[in-house]
Amino acid sequence: MDYLDMTLTEVLDALNAGEVTSQTLVKLCFDKIKQTEELNALNSTYFDMAMARAKELDERRANGQKLGALGGVPVVLKDNINLIGTKTTCASKFLQNFVSPYNATVAQKLIDADAIVIGKANMDEFAMGSSNENSAFGPVKNPVDTTRVPGGSSGGSAATVAAKQCFASLGTDTGGSIREPSSFCGVVGIKPTYGRVSRYGVVAFASSLDQVGPITRSVKDNALMLNVLAGQDPMDMTSSNQPVEDFTSKLDAGVKGIKIGVAKQFFTDALSSEVRQSLETALDWYKQNGAEIVEVDLPSLDTALAVYYILSSAEAASNLARFDGVKYGVRANQYDDVVDLYFKSRTQGFGKEVKRRIMLGNYVLSSGYYDAFYRKAKRVQKVIRNEFTNALQNCDVLISPTTANPAFKLGEKTNDHVAMYLTDIFTVPINIAGVPALSIPCGKNSEGLPIGMQIIGKHFDEATIYQVANAFEQSHKEDK
Amino acid sequence: MSITIEDVKKLAKLSRLEFTDEEALQFVDELTATLAQVDAINKVDVSQVDLFEKTVNADTELRADEIKPSLPVEQIVANAPDKKDGAFLVPITVAED
Asked: Which of A22, A130, A135, A153 is an active site residue?
């Protein structure tokens, strides 16, 4: 068997059994990266660093030392996550030469678990986008069909896992940026509960909504990764002190007696007939296997996108004020004075979508509009949160489509930003409510494009999401 | 709610961004379209919402306020476009007269 066809779990077994070395895996991954270069999934790679680390880990393993939970497995970080001595560009011209002076907590945790970071993934600039076409380094192509987008903003992170350039990656998700690309590329991605994973060292987009999460080729791989990433961090005061359970503990518990909530608001006219059909087939499967389907109500769901664009843009405008051409990033060559330096550097450094969000953010925060937009949106957010909490009191998980349609064509929505924003209609409410949700493949459409199912859990109950997802994946392996 | 070219110019100034007249006009249309979309928040009755009642993430805490080593100055200024002796260099910000 080709080692690159293995899941992370399988390749860990092969490493532990001495069938393969990490050095071989790193070489195989780099061969694959070369073969699939046209995807443009990675912004940077570290062959020498990765080989040196693989050698060290192989030696430790050969000497009988027990390695960490990800011992010797090649992984990729999204290019907004700091790793000492490597570029962190956020796919922006502004940060094209920025070198991380420290490790993000999630990067440190992967290193401590003996993973091998082999590169950083392309993304929408500053994580703003749903198609990975807003990158200063060019769009990423979908490995399933290279005329199509991989989704965004973690498009490179999803594409690199789907194309088997690595065994797992990290993405970040503010309104669907892990789940939408996972759905489009046919892989598994989770946005953990807000507060589950530290954001320290991850470049902020909208701090009250951002979460880091893993993208993998199987549910079990995903749970293993979250085991490594989760936990309170003194460097991030929004990280929660909720105890971290073993997310693999309930994987094989099945779905007998599990209550699955379905809200009619997720099954709108926007849904393509093939996606609807796939979801209904999946729900039937759950029913046949002992789960109970219950109807739940999320009456304010259709306002979540509006809340999202107000809150995320307001936070982005504030967070991105730090990019002024003084402390880091690109400085304009010519300017009249210090204020002009700010204007020129920002105008030259930021791409169009980033400017659009900053403008909207400053509008909703500006005097005279703050109450009508920002404050109102915060209140509606509370209503949406309460609706999710109430719905999840009557069931274990909710199931919805991840997106209304499979991956669209490159360039199809670039001139219509409102249509692009609507792509996230099913993923955005999850960030607004702060609950965890995972996207898992649930079939393909007539063109062979992956369709994603979103499994939404209670706050801090990722383990039940993995249980429900794994049961489905185990019985649908042949569909892959 | 519609946006005027004056609104866009004011926002650009607040945002420390420069736009050509053509770009500014485009923003008038785009922001108007986006604002029409976000108007959906007004459908929800929020009269009973208490913004300060804590529900989610009541389980976060501040770390102890202890002095710990921070990054060396050289590393902090390493990414600055212009620097000297461990400081960020900027144009003169106070007029000399």
From this structure: A153
- How far does B79 lie from chain A, in Å, by closest CA? 5
Statement: residue A479 has pLDDT above 70: no
Active site residue A78: yes
**Is B58's pLDDT higher than 70?**
no
Residues 6 or more apart whose Cβ sits within 8 Å of residue B27: A356, A359, B3, B8, B11, B12, B19
pLDDT greater than 60 at residue A340: yes
Report how far apart the first and last C-alpha atoms of chain A are (Å, whole number): 17
What percentage of chain A has pLDDT greater than the value 90? 96
Percent helix / strand / coil, chain A, rounded to 5: 40, 15, 40
Cα-trace Rg, chain B: 23
| CA–CA dist B52, A435 (Å, integer) | 19
At A269 the pLDDT is: 87
Chain B residues whose beta carbon lies within 8 Å of the beta carbon of residue A98 = 79
Within 8 A of B12 by CB-CB distance, chain A residues are 359
A135 noted as active-site residue: no
Q: Which of A210, A335, A379, A459 to mutate to test the interface with B (most CBs of B within 10 A)?
A: A379
Least Cα distance to A450 among A160, A184, A116 occurs for A184
Which of A234, A302, A309 lies at the smallest CB-CB distance from B38? A309
pLDDT of the residue at A416: 85
Q: Of residues A324 and B54, which shows the higher confidence score?
A: A324
Asked if B56's CB is within 8 angstroms of A194's CB, the reply is yes
A22, A78, A183, A300: the catalytic one is A78
Identify from B17, B39, B70 which residue to disrupt to test chain A contact, counting A C-beta atoms within 10 A and taking the largest count: B17
CA A63 to chain B, closest CA, distance in angstroms equals 35
A153 part of the active site:
yes
At the fourth CATH level, the homologous superfamily of domain A3-229 is Amidase signature (AS) domain (3.90.1300.10)
**pLDDT grade, residue B36 (50/70/90)?**
very high
Q: What is the ipTM of this complex?
A: 0.93
**What is the full DSSP assignment across A161-196?**
HHTTSSSEEEEEESSSTTHHHHHHHT-EEEEPPTTS
Provide the residue ranges of all domains of chain B, joining segments of one domain with +: 5-43
Q: Please give the distance of CA A123 from its chain centroid, rounded to a whole number.
A: 10
pLDDT above 70 (res A2): yes
- A418 pLDDT band, cuts 50/70/90, is confident
Q: Where are the domains of chain A?
A: 3-229, 259-296+396-479
